[in-house]
Each structure stands twice: as structure tokens, then as C-alpha cells.
What we know:
This is Zinc-or iron-chelating protein. InterPro entries: Puta_zinc/iron-chelating_dom. By secondary structure, the protein is mostly helical. The chain contains twelve helices and four strands, in the order H-H-H-E-H-H-H-H-H-E-H-E-H-E-H-H.
Amino acid sequence: MTEYLxxxxxxxxxxxxxxxxxxxxAFFDNIIEELLDSEMDTNSVILNGFKRLLSxxxxxxxxxxxxxxxxxxxxxGCAFCCYFPIIVTQMEAKIMLxxxxxxxxxxxxxxxxxxxxxxxxxxxxxxTALNMDIQDSETKLNYKRLDLPCPMLDPETKTCMAYxxxxxxxxxxxxxxxxxVCAENHMPDEPFSYEFLYExxxxxxxxxxxxxxxxxxxxxxxxxxxxxxxxxLPAWIKRRSELEGEGV
Length: 248
């Protein structure tokens, strides 16, 4: 029988992390230096930087888990967290759409077809969700209560259709207790969020974009304004044609 951590165990281990663990920014800085010193074209630098920085967040979480002696109880097909609101910048949305455009044809078309049915099927819920105030402290719970899946969630397999480029909120919300707590509660107390790692990821991604911008490179994002424009992921995908018209 699997032994899951109790809530107090998770609190104790996370407190130990808060008091004693230091994130080493060098892991993120090295990615910046390698990419900006490379011979890759501008788009490749952006796309590779995006993916490598997202992966580095995963690696950093693994290092913290090893330090604290924790192992997530999340498993493939466990999609309860895929009903939370996912908020990203316009810059991230454009990069994600560019990445999906580069997926193999069959995989890409499956995603596009899913989006067509997704926005038809969930139109009423989306009208409610996308009008919720991002800044309101009650929005997260109210959004979750809508039972509105992420547009990246495969309705058949309950897995992410763009897993390798899933946004930071999807990567940093992990459960170390019995998975039942996610099944039985909209917002369980047990899961732990590493969302503070967002500042390292976004800081590094912004540094790459700023260097390219200041060097006069032609970017497929509107820098820096896209960095400061936030919205729900479904809202950006709904505006896909508009974003593509801006250069994606």
C-alpha cells in the first residue's frame, strides 16, 4: 500500500525548504548565455529558450523534492488541476502557438480540431469564465466550480495535448498527499505550489527577448508590450487567428 504524506508532513517539509533551500539562478543564467552566444536564428533562440526554461523549472522542482524528501503523487491521467484558470502573458501565448504550429502535422491537426469542438461545446461556461476578474481572490475557486477543462486537455485520455510546453501553473502545482484530496475538493489544502519559480523563468525569458530586441532582431512578438498583457489561456487560443495575424 502506497504511503502518502500527511498534510502536516507536507507543511513541515515545505517550511524546511523555505528556511534552508536556495534556488541557484545560475541554472537559468547558463541557458540565457548559451542561447545568445549560439549561431541559431532568432526564432530558434526564442523557441528553444522557452522550452529549455520551462524544463529547467521542472529540474529545479526535482532538486527541491530531493532536498526535502518528497515525491509527487500526481499520475498520468490525473487531470483535476486541469480545471483551474491558467493565466499567461500574450508573449507566452504567441510562443506556445508558434510551437504547436511546428508540431508534426497529425498531432497539430488533432489539437486544432479539438479546439473547434472545445469552443462550441463549452461556449456558455467560457462566456462566464473569461469574464471573471483575474485579480479577484475568489476567481480561482469560482472558475474551478465551472468544471471547465483546459483547452489543452485531451477529453479522451485526460492528458495534456501539448505537455512539453504546458505553462508554469501546470508545472508548479503538485500533490504529495493521497490523490483523493484532489478528486474530492475543488481547492484542497494538501497540494503545494512552486509558482514562485515563475520569476526565474520569466526573468530569464524576458532577458533573452530584451537582448534580441535591443539587437534589432525581427521578433514574432510585440516586445515589450506582450510581456505585460495577461489573460486566460482559453482566451488567447480563442483569439488565435488574431494573434497569428500579428506575426505568429
